[in-house]
Amino acid sequence: MSLLLAISRIIDAINTRIGKWCAWLILAAIVVSALNALVRKLFDTSSNAWLELQWVLFGVVFLMCAPWTLIANEHIRIDIVNSQLSKRVRDWIDIIGHVFFLLPFTIVMIITTAPFAERSWLINEQSSSAGGLPQWPAKFLILIGFILLFFQAISELIKRIAIMRGDMDDPHAGGAGQAEAEVERLLETIDPNVSRP
């Protein structure tokens, strides 16, 4: 198990670094979007390349930060229901979800996206819009994003099994994640006297 946990730490480190770096592209997308809107309003002109760049930047953030979101345990779940379940049940739900849903989904996406991206690269696919960007880099981003998510799912599965076996402490057990903290704050706003488990 120690070898698997070492592999998990390497995967986590890579995806965390990629996620933190790519998160800054949100700022770039905002700047590009603002400048594009400003130029369109002031000079009554626009560029398809700048519009498509906004979409590509958003796609990069969404795809490359998804594994980092999984590491931080901030992916979407029904927090109010989830918080009512025991820790062991939540751990089993995570394992079942990773094995039967997340891993198969990433495998299907990798298998179907690889030829799609390769074909786009081989023909040097360009945008159908005048002055648009090449399309093959964006299509390769889909492939790369799902490969990273596949490895992160493996890492999360390793960690969850290690936690259930007692080989490691749960890094998310000590405190609620941002979503859980927000639910707690909202519940306290509604009725501060309501007791919660």
Secondary-structure element sequence? HHHHHHH
Could you tell me the number of beta strands?
0
Radius of gyration: 21 Å
Structural class based on helices, strands and sheet pairing: mainly alpha
- Note the beta-strand portion: under 5%
Question: What is the tally of helical segments?
Answer: 7
Overall helicity: over 70%
Report how far apart the termini are.
33 Å
Q: Give the low-confidence spans.
A: none
Largest sheet properties: none
Bulk shape: globular
Return the average pLDDT rounded to an integer: 86
SSE topology sketch:
Layout: H1 2-23, H2 25-43, H3 48-71, H4 79-82, H5 87-122, H6 136-165, H7 178-190
Helix pairs in contact: 1-3, 1-6, 2-3, 3-6, 5-6
What is the structure about, briefly put?
It contains seven helices and no strands. The chain is mainly alpha-helical and 197 residues long.
Account of the 3D structure:
Helices cover 75% and strands 0% of the residues. It is mostly helical and 197 residues long. Helix 1 packs antiparallel against helix 3 (48-71), helix 1 (2-23) crosses helix 6 and helix 2 (25-43) runs antiparallel to helix 3 (48-71). The longest helix has 36 residues, at 87-122. It starts with a helix and ends in a 7-residue tail after the last helix. The model has no long low-confidence stretch (mean pLDDT 86).
